[in-house]
UniProtKB/TrEMBL annotation:
Bilayer-crossing regions: 6-25, 57-81, 87-113, 133-158, 207-227, 248-266, 272-289
Residue ranges constituting the PDZ domain according to the UniProt record: 302-350
Superkingdom of origin organism: Bacteria
Keyword Transcription among record annotations: no
Organism: Lactiplantibacillus nangangensis
Name assigned to this protein: PDZ domain-containing protein
The UniProt record lists the keyword ATP-binding: no
Keywords assigned: Membrane, Transmembrane, Transmembrane helix
Lineage, highest ranks first: Bacteria, Bacillati, Bacillota, Bacilli, Lactobacillales
Pfam families: PDZ_2
Length: 392
């Protein structure tokens, strides 16, 4: 029962609901775009919202077990600073995701407040049962480990196929030719259980769980950790690009853990530790910059073509799943008829209402033959998304 009440208090925090609203708006914008440009949504279910709950709760449970097992203690003042900055970031940057920048800025702000301004609030905080924490090494080490947990959770999301939807967005290039951009933009608010010094929550809510270690009391708080990444590709297969990006996140997460262990075994000053925390935040931006650089220097795949019709999307749970197609493949023939436009492709489909036979050139420039049954009388339910025909 206490666990449910702790979760209930987490759900009452404004950052959770603001993040959910952002996910809903992003999902609605995607579905409208797909219906406008491709006649129907690639996935009409609001996958971003489902991932917000499904992925957030499962990963949050794992992160909470690890966090409480390590005994990660954070300052309640830092928690307030962090959540305030996270809320502002979602309001000020409505189309972007900057969670790790917010995380780094929260520690910079906490460092700026210590010790000049915090001394003024210590007496008031103690009067309400809050044990103030100064800028000490233990708190910053907890910050490094929380940062690592968040990066690891983001890497897991990037590698999980069921959380990814490769939705194409049509863009013109410099020559007026149509090209496709694929974007991965998933936002989560991860419930990470942390220890807060003092029994101020228990004093207000008598049922709130309190732990005692020696003479020190700790309350458990589910910290709303903002996660997410906004990445895009023009010249890479999306799934391969997301996996490569996930490897970079894993490396930075591992580095954060190593730095935390080194800091625990040495006597680095808090100022140095804040600098190290800022350094790993910068590394995340380096990983994203490397991702963009790598994409810009790849062979271009996702453009309109005069030889056949290019596959730019595949709807889940359709006959297309059995055709062994990939994004970027070019369909040269449908039911043994050459095709050069979307209209020709669907006209060829109608010649065989229950079966489709395709000749395809894949992204490795290999010719393959693939076939499968389709829905009788519903060629548009095949599940292959193509460039729509341009009007003259």
């Amino acid at each position: 029962m206490h666990v449910l009440r702790v979760l209930e208090l987490f759900l009452l925090q404004p950052l959770v609901w603001l993040g959910l609203i952002r996910c809903y708006l992003a999902a609605r914008r995607r579905v409208r775009y797909e219906r406008h440009h491709f006649r129907s949504a690639i996935d009409a279910h609001y996958l971003e919202v489902r991932n917000f709950f499904k992925g957030g709760l499962l990963l949050g449970l794992i992160a909470t077990v690890i966090s409480l097992g390590l005994g990660l203690v954070v300052s309640p003042v830092w928690a307030v600073i962090y959540e305030t900055l996270a809320i502002l970031s979602l309001l000020i940057v409505p189309t972007g995701l900057v969670p790790w920048t917010v995380f780094g800025l929260s520690w910079l702000a906490y460092w700026a407040l210590n010790p000049r301004l915090m001394a003024q609030f210590n007496t008031r905080l103690q009067a309400h049962g809050v044990t103030p924490l100064g800028l000490n090494s233990g708190v910053i080490i907890s910050g490094l480990l929380i940062f690592a947990l968040g990066l690891a959770a983001t890497a897991i999301l990037l590698k999980r196929h069921e959380t990814q939807l490769n939705s194409p967005e049509i863009r013109p290039d410099q020559r007026g030719k149509r090209i496709v951009r694929y974007r991965w933009q998933q936002l989560l608010v991860l419930p990470v259980g942390v220890l807060i010094p003092g029994d101020w929550l228990h004093a207000t809510l008598s049922w709130w769980p309190v732990f005692q270690v020696g003479t020190q009391h700790f309350s458990v708080l589910l910290l709303p950790l903002l996660l997410g990444v906004s990445a895009q590709v023009y010249k890479q297969r999306p799934q391969l690009a997301w996996r490569r990006l996930a490897k970079g996140y894993w490396l930075v997460a591992a580095l954060s853990v190593i730095l935390a262990v080194v800091a625990r075994l040495t006597t680095l000053s808090p100022q140095w530790l804040v600098g190290l925390l800022g350094g790993v935040v910068v590394l995340v931006w380096v990983i994203l910059a490397q991702h963009r650089y790598h994409d810009q220097h790849q062979q271009f795949w996702f453009s309109d073509t005069d030889q056949g019709v290019r596959v730019i999307g595949l709807r889940p749970n359709t006959p297309a799943d059995k055709l062994n197609l990939s994004i970027g493949d070019v369909i040269l023939e449908c039911n043994r008829q050459p095709v050069h436009s979307e209209a020709q492709f669907y006209a060829a489909l109608l010649t065989s209402p229950t079966y489709v036979h395709l000749k395809v050139r894949n992204v490795q420039q290999q010719l393959i033959i693939t076939e499968t049954a389709i829905y009788n009388g519903a060629p548009h339910e095949l599940g292959i998304v193509l460039f729509t025909d341009q009007e003259d």
